[in-house]
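Hey, sorry to bother you again with one of my protein questions. A protein chain has come my way and I'm curious about its shape. It would help a lot if you went through both lines with me. I owe you a coffee for this, so here goes:
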Amino acid sequence: MKLLDFILLSLTAAMVIIGTHLTITVGVTASYPVFMFAVAMLFWFQYRKNHVIKADNEKPPVKSSKSKKKR
C-alpha cells in the first residue's frame, strides 16, 4: 500500500469518527456531508486499489534470471 492509499484510508476513518460525533451532538443533518465525503474517499481508495491490481495483472510474466550450471 502506497503512502497516498494509507492517507486516504486514515482520513476516511477519521471522517467517519467525526461524522459519528456530529450525529450524536448536533444531528444527522449536520453530519450528512461529512459521511458523504467519507464515502467518496472510500470509493477513491477502492478505485486506486483496483487500478493497481488491474495493472499488475496486465504485466507480462517475468522470466527467472537464475543461471544454470553446465555439467
In short: The chain has two helices and no strands. Helices lie at 3-25, 28-58. The two ends are 44 Å apart (CA to CA). The chain has a mean pLDDT of 87.
